[in-house]
Design brief:
This protein is α+β, with helices and mostly antiparallel strands. Among the domains are: 257 residues, Alpha-Beta Complex (Amidase signature (AS) enzymes); 64 residues, no CATH class. The strands form four sheets. Strands 1-3-2-8-10-9-16-17-13-11-12 form an eleven-stranded mixed beta sheet, sandwiched between helices. Strands 4-5 form a two-stranded antiparallel ribbon. β11, α8 and β12 form a beta-alpha-beta unit. α5 packs parallel to α6, α9 packs parallel to α11 and α9 crosses α13. The longest helix is centred in the C-terminal third of the chain and has 24 residues.
């Protein structure tokens, strides 16, 4: 395989063996970006001069006998992370010139591990879309079909990896923002357990980089193999050294099993609130068949599964109660008026959004109490199962849709249209209770687009879905470069 598409583990071995230098890897990655990224638009803020300098420093460090987990490996970083000397905009035009003074904690960890940062990858405005486009940096295209989205909000990172622009990337996930782009672009991503990896410096400008414990949102790794996800997660995991890190270190338990045949897996392909498209259903069943063939215990139903409808409603309420917290007062009052007019019988997803947008603190505490009941339900389920396989979204990557009113957008599922944001119910399944979830490639659609699934695991047992992802990669294949 062309060196730009080799995984980080292979590149690290080549560097250790003296078969290649970091300077050579970095020059090759930059050359590929300069050649191919005009059509993809994944790298929105290149940092090539500093990357070349970092690569030379990595080679010098290796010559001195140093060896760090990512020493000399070219990587990219999602635009929403602060990097000193580069703009952080979150795609918001008023912040086009915002320049942070210090690196985000995860960028610092990447550099401490020896990574060479090539630049930043594109995002949607405010990270609030399932596509990646904004007025500052334009639209990121799917490497498999330029008329389709690469996903959001880590769409630039997924497109970069699928295109051979660096071996690893870091992103974030609140509404599937790691998993959906991975699914759309045919790569791997891992949404860690809530709180596992520090988020300081991954903050909307011009807010200061404070060590805040986020609700729902996480930062996590993206890669072209499952083992590379684990490698990068080990660099990212751990509490913020300004807060919890003063008192403790993070030690993840090992994976529950090493052999595919020892896993107990629940497979879900249907959601009560939105259908699963035929291409994604085929991907789920391809993974299920591989599990059965490998000797795993596979079930399709269990009374232990928390109620999917209530889970989706709770996710919507918790998600939107946070996203509108800084609405202007007049806008907030308009939403409150609309919410007050809802019928008590209206239990739709849209109604859950409106109610969540005007939550009182009392309302939020009640929703959080119900979330704890769901977490308890998941603990009971994971006493009987090791992982859950399910869709990431109902469809492969959809055509670009830049309608400025997202509520007017529609998602085509096998010829039938559904509200655009209803596709988030699958992402919320892991996000609402804070569970780890690994997105893996699971084949191609009839149109040749990548299809992925997610493997949801027990809280703080991130190595379990990651190990299952690695075993399935050997069984059904993994990343393939776009054709």
């Amino acid at each position: 395989m062309e060196r730009n598409f080799q995984n980080a583990e292979e590149l690290a071995a080549a560097l250790r063996a003296g078969e290649v230098t970091s300077a050579e890897l970095t020059d090759e990655a930059i050359a590929r970006i300069e050649r191919d990224d005009k059509a993809i638009n994944a790298i929105c803020v290149p940092d090539f001069d500093r990357a070349r300098a970092a690569a030379r420093g990595a080679d010098q460090a290796r010559a001195r006998g140093e060896d760090r987990p990512l020493l000399g490996i070219p990587v990219t970083v999602k635009e929403c992370y602060n990097i000193a000397g580069l703009p952080t905009t979150w795609g918001m035009p008023p912040q086009a010139n915002f320049m942070p003074a210090e690196d985000a904690v995860q960028v610092s960890r990447l550099k401490a591990a020896g990574a060479v940062v090539l630049g930043k990858t594109n995002v949607p405005v405010g990270l609030q879309d399932i596509q990646s486009f904004n007025e500052i940096y334009g639209t990121t295209n799917n490497p498999w079909n330029h008329g389709r989205t690469s996903g959001g909000s880590s769409g630039g990172s997924a497109a970069a990896l699928a295109s051979g622009f660096g071996a690893l990337s870091i992103g974030s996930d609140l509404a599937g923002s790691l998993r959906t782009p991975a699914h759309f672009c045919g790569i791997y991503a891992h949404k860690p357990t809530l709180g596992l990896a520090a988020t300081r410096g991954m903050v909307a400008p011009p807010a200061p980089p404070l060590p805040v414990d986020l609700d729902l949102a996480v930062v996590g790794p993206m890669a072209r193999t499952a083992r590379d996800l684990t490698l990068l997660l080990d660099v990212m995991a751990g509490p913020d050294p300004l807060t919890h890190g003063v008192a403790y270190d993070m030690t993840l338990p090992p994976a529950r099993h090493e052999r595919l045949g020892d896993f107990r897996v629940l497979v879900l392909e249907d959601h009560p609130l939105i259908p699963t498209g035929s291409a994604v259903r085929a991907g789920v069943n391809r993974v299920a068949d591989a599990l059965v063939d490998g000797g795993a215990r596979v079930e399709r139903h269990t009374p232990l599964l928390p109620d999917l409808t209530e889970a989706a409603m709770l996710y919507r309420q918790l998600l939107f109660s946070g996203s509108v917290a800084r609405f202007p007062v007049d806008s907030y009052e308009q939403v409150r008026t609309r919410a007050a007019a809802l019928s008590a019988d209206d239990q739709s997803l849209d109604a859950a959004v409106l109610r969540g947008m005007v939550f009182s603190h009392r309302d939020w505490l009640e929703a959080n109490s119900r979330r704890e009941l769901h977490r308890h339900g998941w603990r009971q389920l994971f006493a009987e199962f090791d992982a859950v396989v399910c869709p990431v979204t109902p469809t492969p990557a959809f055509p670009h849709d830049h309608n400025p009113n997202p509520l007017e957008r529609r998602l085509d599922i096998d010829g039938v249209e559904y509200p655009y944001f209803d596709q988030l119910v699958w992402a919320g399944l892991a996000t609402m209770p804070g569970l780890p979830a690994t997105a893996i490639p699971a084949g191609r659609s009839p149109e040749g687009l990548p299809v992925g699934v997610q493997l949801i695991g027990p809280m703080f047992e991130d190595r379990t879905p990651l190990r299952l992802a690695e075993l399935l990669e050997h069984k059904i294949g993994g990343f393939q470069p776009p054709m």
